[in-house]
Specification:
There is one protein chain. Helix content is about 45%, strand content about 15%. Helix 1 packs across helix 9, helix 4 runs parallel beside helix 6 and helix 6 runs parallel beside helix 7. The radius of gyration is 19 Å and the shape is globular.
Length: about 280
């Protein structure tokens, strides 16, 4: 696709994008794609992330305002929604791209987690979606027919040891999406999760063993790992009016990894390994 010319799929739509940090992050690429397709939106991230990242550059490029929000604090989420409502007049789409595990960062094994950190992982990576949807609804900020997408990972269904308690967090995230999708359907609001393949981002590369996870998925996926820009285009379809009847789904965007048993590439590599022994 020509990334300077879109199809106008989001023309007239207004949204809120959580989680953009730098130009490698998926949320950043989604923001650019939303701009390309004609949307107007606001950007939000935690105050500490705003200091570490370069969101001002994205704001300048897309014309989006930047609103700090600590999603662990209910009052912050409510204030964010009220500010967005004042600025944009209502939301037609929300991207939840929030995830963080202190246990993973500190290489704590799953069998010896710091439980305070564990609570933080769940609160920031999963419960935050519940808070976002709760306050989007109670403040009357989310419009009828809106679309909500949260980024997930196959660790919700299969265990990847280095992903540790984030496996649990993604499972909870997907459950919250289904629960809220059921409850908001009467307003035409759909809630889905996109299970993206390992993607080279600042957050992903911070996971110990990420390179091996990325290479494994690349060799197992018939289509190979999708990029952050590929994910952005997929999310655009979910924000658009082309998917009005898709809700409560966990949609795998992983080049076929989730369904493939073993690939010819993996068989060949394993054969070579045994031949060299």
């Amino acid at each position: 696709m020509n990334y300077t010319e879109g199809y106008g799929l989001l023309k007239g739509k207004k949204g809120l994008i959580f989680g953009a940090l730098d130009e490698r992050s998926i949320a950043w690429r989604i923001a650019l794609a939303c701009k390309r397709e004609g949307a107007e939106f606001a950007l939000s991230n935690a105050p500490v992330a705003l200091r570490l990242g370069s969101l001002d550059a994205l704001s300048k490029e897309t014309g989006a305002s930047v609103i700090p929000c600590d999603v662990s604090k209910e009052e912050d989420v409510e204030a964010l929604m009220l500010k967005v409502k004042d600025e944009l007049g209502g939301l037609d789409f929300i991207l939840h791209a929030i995830g963080m595990s202190p246990n993973v960062r500190k290489s704590k094994p799953y069998t010896d987690l710091d439980y305070k950190f564990y609570h933080q992982t769940m609160d920031i990576s999963a419960l935050s979606l519940h808070k976002v949807l709760h306050f989007a609804e109670t403040t009357e900020t989310i419009n009828d027919g809106a679309s909500v997408v949260a980024l997930s990972y196959i660790g919700a269904q299969r265990i990847f040891s280095k992903y540790s308690d984030m496996n649990d967090a993604k499972a909870l995230l997907e459950s919250i999406a289904r629960n809220y999708g059921s409850r908001l359907g009467h307003r035409g609001i759909r809630v889905n999760t996109v299970s993206q393949a390992p993607t080279i981002t600042s957050a992903g590369s911070g996971i110990k063993g990420f390179d091996a996870m990325f290479e494994f998925a690349e060799k197992m996926s018939p289509l190979g790992n999708p990029t952050a820009d590929d994910c952005a285009d997929y999310c655009i379809t979910l924000f658009s009016d082309l998917t009005k009847k898709v809700t409560m789904q966990n949609l795998f965007h992983d080049g076929g990894f989730c369904t493939n048993g073993i690939s010819e590439q993996m068989i060949s590599d394993l054969a070579k390994l045994h031949e060299s022994e």
